Prior knowledge:
Blueprint: H1 3-31, H2 35-59, H3 61-88, H4 104-115, H5 121-138, H6 140-178, H7 183-222, H8 227-237, H9 246-258, H10 262-291, H11 296-310, H12 314-336
Helix pairs in contact: 2-3, 2-6, 3-6, 7-8, 7-10, 7-12, 9-10, 11-12
Amino acid sequence: MSSREVSGASVRLVFAGVLVTALGIVAALILLPFLTYLLAAALLAFVLYPLQRRLAARVGTRLSAAALVALSVLCVVLPLGLLVYRLASGGSVVPGELEELPRLPVIESLIERSVGVEMSIRSQLNTALGQVSSMLAEQSSGIVGAGVHATFGVLLFVFVLYYLLKDGHRLVAWLLYVTPLPEAVQDELVAQTNAMTWAVLEGHVLVAVVQGIVAGAGLFVAGIPNAGFWTLVMMVVALIPVLGVGVVVGPAVLYLVVVDRLLAAVLLAAYGVTIVALIDDYLRAYLINRGSALNSAVILVGVLGGVYLLGPMGLFYGPILLGLFKATIEVFDDYYEVLERP
Length: 342
């Protein structure tokens, strides 16, 4: 090959690289406004894909994908939508019993004796609620815009989820085709990716869901108003190891004390530090050991860093991406001896 041909090939290679990079940046900017919904669709499609394969063998790819999307909407999107509608239409998650608060005078007297400052907790709560209402009124246009964006995002989530379930295997096949790695390395990477993702989901997400449900059962038995709403909240905060369900159970115990239900407060506190805590410790340890997932410290870093980088979906993708990083290093080390061995 002559020097002129080599130079022409280099120019074409550079041009192709610049073009692909520019188009990649444009594509990223197009996806960025709805990144949270796209990531949610991709994660849910990964979870549902084994069921999709089984159903597709019986009823067909299109019908099975449509049925799973409908099930997802009923189980996830619809409940969250109804919750947001309730809050936006004036519904409140604040217990109605706070209107009476039989122990408020006792608490106020205790604060006054301890600090030397006269305080009216009821008036402080009313003032805070009034400020929140004023803030919501001032931000009404932004709330409407956010609602429109969320509507388009949910629609996009539904359509992307359907096509990922229906044609996701083609997307994976294309990615493997354009990846310049030997087939054996690709197969190992795919296997490690699936194993690590399931391990992180089981050891992180499944534990949070189970712990939230168990703690929510305690709130329901204790008679905490809107226990279903707080159960959803605990499923989310349980994903963050530093917080956990204690940020809801603790205030619930204080609420029971304030409304003069001391026995229920003691029982709920005991339930939280025993049953709920043991579920977190033992179930998480069992799933992590079984799946060889990441330890709690790495999960914490992944959760917090993922939220900063990816927003709400970082709760899930942060630990998963760290797990994939670990799996990729191990695969490359096995096939290319990246790490020096003694």
